User: Fold these one by one.
Assistant:
Number 1:
Amino acid sequence: MQPSNICLRITALATALSLPALAFAQSDDAKDLDNVVVTATRTAITADTALAAVEVIDRKDIEQSAARSLPELLRGRAGITLVNQGGLGKLSTLFLRGTESDHTLFLVDGVRVGNATSGLASLQDIPLEQLERIEIVRGPRSSLYGADAIGGVIQLFTRRGSGDAGVRGRGQARVGSQGLLEASAGVDLRGARGGVGVDLAHQSSDGINACSGFYDPATWQGAGCFIVPGTHPDRDGYRNNSATLRADYAPNEAWQFDARALRAAGHNDYDGDYVDNSDIVQQVVGGSVRWKASEAAQLKLSVGRNTDTSDNHVGSSFANRFDTTRDSASLQGDFSVATGHALTAGFDWLRDRADVQDPWTPFPPVSRGNRAAFAQYQGKLNAHDLQASLRRDDNDQFGGKTTGGIAWGYGFGEGWRVTASHATAFKAPSFNELYYPYFGNPMLRPESARSSELSLRHDNGGWQWQLNAYRNDIDDLIVYDTAIFAANNIESARIRGVELTASGRLGAWDVRGQLGTLDARNLSTGGNHGKRLPRRPQRSARIDLDRDLGDLGFGISGIAEGARWDDVANTLRVGGYGTVDARASWRFAAGWTLQASLVNAFDRRYETTAYYNQPGREWSLGLRWQPR
């Protein structure tokens, strides 16, 4: 689809994209916009008052990190385990607080994204240069968002223009090892009542040999990606071209119109026998209209569509095509009923569709609708903060499901705060689990969860730290059942964990870090009872150190993860690892910055999943232009 067609789509489909202008649960004091989050409660609150574990990554953090991809940026952060199958652009799955890789809800500008057949979001294909901000909420949020939010919610916000009237431009170029090439440019035109903007980006890499797996055609035995020996000892490249478009208009103080679109199209090579390369498309379009009736009430209507398409080939021969869409709409009202007390209520609508073309495993076109009503109360009583939410989902496939959540916070002493919460959540079966030939089971029930958390936080103005302890019990996990030769609800799990996060200044250095421990166990009956859930390390740590010396900047990041099992029977072990990344920047002229980075500086060999290689030492050199 050409950019002009995207413009046409924007006018018809859209999403809740702009931050709400009124934070009903907050005081009238001015707040730093960088500290405002909307994902935790679907309303604007400050991160330090959220009754959930929240992390915000803004555009400054993204540029300072020198990360080349969204998975690279998120790797090692509190509660997050990333599993990557061979470097840049290769399949990357995220485990949040030990839950399954499809137990995290992803939003782009308020629009639900993810492949309806697999249930996964294609994180590796969302261009980092198109993102302005990321909000990570750890812990279940089904009582506000419905299905998929057992582990938490991660919302990505695309680029936004400056609030000042006029024309603003920006550009960036980078080269690096493995044939890395990047280029991006954007412009915003703003007037007194609104503006428009566009960003274009390109990224390509020759890649590495993604897989070290094997396949013996004489015995039909293999591991990893089932490589026939000698056929795939090659580099597996990646290419991604992307664009974002945006427009907003506020005719007066009461009305706000907003529309956005993101499209990323690319090509991915990987190792395998059945398919070995794909043409991919990720597209999110949508918009919203907000009516501020008074200082105490506002309504917002949002609609959007996510398209996830993959054309898969063996060499140049067509193998199959997966085309899924998610259409969504939401009507939300926010009401300030008294000082310190706010109500939020609304309706959500969602429809998933899948069209699979596969000559070997015919998959009928399928669709599924979901309707939901939700309500939330937020209140402040002296030093106590309260939040309660309730949601009812009605799904075409599995019927009704009710989830709820309650949270309490108490501030005491000088900067101390304790919070406690309990919530229920669920995950709807994916289309693959329901209908895929020789695997699907249309009688599946949703996976369900119960989670409790206790947190202690301290902020003395210079250092902030937070200790979170949580437990999540998950029932009716969906796996392949050999008794019926199909997917079935037969497993359960118990996940317990502790997170310690801290940030502050140590001399002239900005310091951020996290330590985590995780005990994720299979509680299903049978031989795997008590085994650890695969691909979850027991221990993880990350530390980031950054320092500015006038026009010069330096930074170091250290990431470590313990060993993990790569199978449910705990027989295939993947060793732990530690890596160090380094970066430097030089602001040599007004608006111009030269940046260099070294990833995996000590050339550590490691894997995040068995038989899939990770790159060794990699370098990059970039030039960024962004007038202030």
Number 2:
Amino acid sequence: MPFVEGMVDTAGGPRRYRLAWPPEFPLRPPVTWEVSSDGTKVIDHRDHGYTFQDLSLCLFAHDPQRGWRPEFTAGEALDRLVSYLEQEARGAFPRVEDIPLTTQAIRVSVPLSISAALRQGGSWGMLMALVREDGRLLRVMSVDGTSRSPIITGPLEAGLGESWIAALGLNHPRDGLWCRIDMAVKQVPSLRQDLDSWLRQRLPNEQARRLFMEQGLLLLVLNDGLRFVLRRPRTSSDTRPEERLLYVKPFEENLEERIFRRVEERLDGGGGLQRAQVAIVGVGSLGGSVAVALAKAGVGRFVLLDPEVLDPENVARHVGGVDELCLPKVEVVSRAIHRINPAAEVVPVQAALSLDPVGWGRDTTQHLIEVTHNPLGVVACATATTEAESVVNHLCVTGECPGIFAAVLGRAEHGRVFRVLPRVTPCYQCVLNAQHAEPGRFPRFDRADMGVPAYQQPGLPGLGMDVEQVALLTARMTLQTLGERIAGGLDYPKAHGDHLIWSNHGGWAVDGPLQARVELIPRDRECPVCGDGGELPLALEEEQELAALQVVRK
């Protein structure tokens, strides 16, 4: 490896270093040694636990905050070297890296506000945590004794919403003890009685020792590093199971925020997707998968409409499982959303849209109208029925709300996804008009094309996969459309077109299987819904009832 040697100034005087660049640089940091003043030998720092087998120094922790980044230069490595050498001169070493991790199967989550407070002050105190029944997830909820002031003694709490607590299964409260160790550590005990003796060196406090013996959890703040200590579960081979200890590296994180960290940093740092609202009409195999994909993308508010329950033949392609048979599909999909984002706002409506004027008075349509009047709202229709699609189209056009229409057809051989942007793109009725006017140019999607419903066909092992592909296309177009409504937008390119045709079979609208094409369908200026024509697409009574409801909702 190419290398360079030189001198750096520290508080204790100049020190000589050697830097070598590994082949993986800049993905890996420079290899760093301290060498003697004449450069003839490498200084051995193994007593301080910060060295690799070749005696090079480990200056970058394995975490995003303190780790190496490709944009760093050799100057960053030298700064870390100076910091390390000055810590060594003071006798202060973050020796937490010396403690071996006994297990990685347990996640201990420490909120950032609590980890920061533990580093700032106090010598020891109590902590309270919530634990999942299987013991694999533990979340610290509060600590006390972190204040430097003896007057302020209240605990520091880092709350977690009830929906998150329930979804994570954190239903077992546990008390524990935390303590600070600001000293070099020669040996880390593996038995509880040895640990108690070890703590006496730093905490000659009978109350703290008594509390430790009563609790099964201990959080060590070891020279600003954190390690969690738990009792080892009883096993048949353990002669002293109550004495064995587990060392776990805590995750310093706000757990509920971390779920969407990558999504928000890349797409929407302002949290606009959390405020966005999507109504999904029809949450069967297609609509349910659309809802789950949008929940994973960070959409925070949903209205789900569907009258049916989950039947056995649905399970092989639906987001629901056998344990949810006979439940309303809106409830099944609501559960799926909350498994991803427990804080999501979901309004499940077990009902169907109706062209009957009496139906306009139901909550079904009222909830839908609320979404169409939401500046961050989008309606997705996944029913593939002309009646429901016509209602959704009318609501979107009159409410000036984007609408996404999706369907999987035949033996799931074909799919279509198109969107309606009022005053910009053709509406659903325009598409129907174009297909009827030029059937050879624009593929039609009516019952004659669909044939026998796909779920009644035998021998379709890939049916769920094909539905998922159309669902992802639908969710992607919905998300892209939301980006056009959110201030600042999302980091997505503009759509090439608004009418997408997909096939897993070929020989119909595309050349071969697993292809998609964009159809540029013109807007019909004489369209009775979005054009200048005077014909009403709905019956007069339906139109009047809808208009009255829209006035009320405004």
Number 3:
Amino acid sequence: MTTRIVVDPVTRIEGHLRIEAIVDGTKISDAVSSGTTFRGIEKIVENRDPRDVWAFVQRICGVCTHIHAIASVRAVEDALNYPIPKNANYIRNIMTLTQFTQDHVIHFYHLHGFDWIDVLSALKADPKATSSLAMSISSWPNSSEGYFRDVQNKVKNIVQSGQLGIFANAYWGHPAYRLPPEANLMGVAHYLEALSWQKEIAKVHTVFGGKNPHPNYLVGGHASSINLDDVHVLNMERLNLVKTKIDEAQTFVNQVLIPDILAIASFYKKDLWGGGIGNFLAYGGVPLVDIHEPDSYLFPRGIVLNRDLSKVYDLDLKDPNHIQEFVSHSWYQYADKDAGLHPWQGRTDPAYDGPKPPYHNLDQSKKYSWIKTPRWQGHAMEVGPLARFVVAYAKGNKEIKEMVDSSLRKLDLPLNALFSTLGRTLARALEAKFCVDQLAGFYADLIANIKAGDTQTFNPEKWEPSRWPAEAQGVGWAEAPRGALAHWIKIRGGKVEGYQAVVPTTWNASPRDATGQKGPYEASLLDTPVAATDQPLELLRTIHSFDPCIACAAHLITPQGKPLS
């Protein structure tokens, strides 16, 4: 029996995503991924001062604000050949790793966790047994029998009220849940703790950027003046607060997130579907020295094709034959509808010709998404924590390789288990540990540099447009929590002539290309089991494992409902 199921909107993500899947018997045989809103930020920033663009493009998303701003200022700096001070690089790295750590913890507990954790099952748990389980895997202090009983009673009161609130509209009791009640109770307790913890780590961004979300940035450096004796700028008291929040984050990740992930994964070891396209791309990022020195990156750069870890390919973001965007199945128009355009030649010209909402189904033989289709030399590519870890593993990164091998040994799983929904989730958690453990090092480097007498955070050398060339173009890249991110800019006469952002979810949620090659979301759903077509928990688990950010990949409309043009 063939059934077409529609999930619209997919919840517990950022933005608006529609998934349609064909279920043959008990497995998905085909899938369609559609971003259902239009953005148009590229249009908004045209003819503006390039130094101001970061403030616009960081508002592409309310979650990814920092990393979009960094990509933007780097694009301008690349175009102008504009070096930044050492302290600015340290601060940018601290803010990047802080965002990674916070984002990954939030993603697991608050967006993805309930694909694995059954809240109502937690009501059946024995708090004493839950306490024993928690203490057997971690030294986290909130692990007493009384603590878990209090959490259980809190959840019980919510359920008995009939108003489930944050626990509403889920598939509790679904046969794809594997955890015993005690593990579910532990997961729910840590869900609640993570709600409080995540607002504390965000204070690192407020110290260096003035606020969160949407901290402040600066082309040519960073918008933080350092004077250890001045109460009005970045001083020692503020820097000590940063150190405290880094220490707290390290404790939470190492004593809560990692033990939880390994414990939960041990019950789902047989559910190894969702591997997807098998091609992985990482731009690389978090430069120890300078963004133009890839050998100094914390996250290595490269391409892995067909899950072959014996070969890593190079990429060049400025080469028009490497990165191209297609619109064969996207609601945009190019002069040649099947041609691919490098972002420096890219266009954002909306041309909606899809069905009038509300509609039952999309036609995948036509245009069906507001997300474009990026390709690397014609290949669909997965980006994100799994892609970063695959590239790093293939390039022999000792620390990441040991983290992966050690975790898989504990789970008694082979290396190819990484290529799955479970592996994607494990990689994100391990990356949170990798990032939070690196944070202390960058903080120490910043403090040492300040103590050595260097307090410079801004280079004024090329700030004035009179010092710019008449024409320039550049690209700013970074690894974002969800994957490879780059912004391309063209500058003429001191103004933005053209701008294109190709974001992680553009890669992952892309529709088919002209050859019919599926994007990573679509490919990952093939052969995914579906126990109940009216409760597609397995589908959501796989899609959530990518941490979709459709707000980044799709677009905005005017209050009148018309696309911006």
Number 4:
Amino acid sequence: MSLEARSAHTSTTDAAQVLRIGNCSGFYGDRLTAMREMLEGGPLDVLTGDYLAELTMLILGRDTMKDPSLGYARTFVRQAEDCLGLALERGVRIVANAGGLNPAGLADRLREVARGLGLDPAIAHVEGDDLRPLGLWDGALTANAYLGGLGIAAALRAGADVVVTGRVTDASLVVGPAVAHHGWTPEQYDELAGAVVAGHVLECGTQATGGNFSGFLSLPDRDRPLGFPLAEIAADGSSVITKHDGTGGAVTVDTVTAQLVYEIQSTRYLGPDVTTHLDSVRLSQQGPDRVAITGVRGDAPPPQLKVCVNELGGFRNSVELVLTGLDVDAKAAWVRDQLTAALAARPPQETTWSELVLPATDADTEQGASTLLRCTVKDADPAPVGKPFTAAAVELALASYPGFTLTSPPSPPTPYGVYRARYVDRSQVEHTVVHADGTREIVVDPPVATAGYEPDIGIRPSPYPATADVLTRRLPLGTFVHARSGDKGGDANLGLWVAHDGSEHRDARVEWLSKLITPRRIRELVPEAVGLEVDCYLLPNLGGVNVVIHGLLGDGVAASTRFDPQAKGLGEWVRSRHVSIEDGLL
């Protein structure tokens, strides 16, 4: 039975025109009850779940080292045990990338679960992303190509009730069902690009309904769990982002923008099925908790596929010291010298001390008079960052600065991974669907671009005229600018846009922000970026600028010793920095 026919009784509008796709997971560890909440909360045709990230692949890789039968997101199995019957009863297809490194193993486990529940769903899986057997990268713990949505579409067209995948792009979880439902061809680039944008908005769950939103103070219903988002995708690729009635949070142009600018690079979003023009995206508020996405343009995808490669980088450990009261800088200098001397016989390959922030003067609480100093060590061998390091720190307890204390007892060293983005020709990847009856189908690659795109499309300089001398005030950038930030391997992504707060000055504010945010200004606002490559891309339709700070996070989240290794708080820090704002914009 076709996806259109199976979903007809669940959609509030003509199923041939609109496909209603929900999300119930933005990461491995998201709210377990979300699958049931989405299934019971209102009509759906398809329910997706995103469980994978670069760090997750490393975690799953370490799982397989202990037990080769693992390698998938086990929380998804728990959700399926609770909700599979309900999904089948309501005619809702489930599509999830929870297969991780072992989609076949997850499919088998789901069949066991279904038999235990007295159910017989058609379960398919998508594989071919795991490139470790090719031996292209020595020492790779994981090496997974980012597949597109055409394999998912093939599984759904063949009647699958549940489709689990390995490493597909996050947006592919939405692209696949949209292709199956609307019958798009691989060369309907604008439609595919529209589905990619909708998928990008849904992929991180409640981040589209107010989670991690810098405008949270105006967010309604914060006393209730934030609702997960869903998209109504039309045959032309346009969509409306919404959520179930009665759930917490909101869907506004700003909450959707926050997710759109999250973890992107340039204005060209390169995917396995289509290259999406992010500077073509237009958003409009259609009503309470309804935001329309229109105007999205796309063209042929690139000839190569991106690969997430994780390697074991070595071992790490850390201690965090509390320094209180007077002479904090001298206390820090003394304990640094003492610990360095104690480790001199076999120093770790890398030792990093956090920046010292002096506490408030004449604080009226002990906590207010204290600050933290963290020492992190890394080595290819666990021995130097194990007992020699932790014992040296503990032995200073009665022999160092006054008030010496640690925030927690020292722990054994832990392994860390190094993320690398690599690229392979499509001919090296065999995108494969294993249907519910066990038959295998090789997914044919779509037509690809024969020439590369211009990488600096949308990059500075600003198209706006120079600013005349005007009166300004020193105020936080966040006075009327929202931000969202995150990590892409070792790069930090920072999206900035002007709030939709009803101000008559919004267009002028957008022009001001577009002139303000340059690589030089970013290095002033983020001193850590001095010496690093910084790209700034203008997104005028969204009223914003996307910033990529290359190398800020070192070798990626698992290896970074930075205070905020995933750059999650970077946007809020930048919003707090003071800049000169023209008086007429306030």
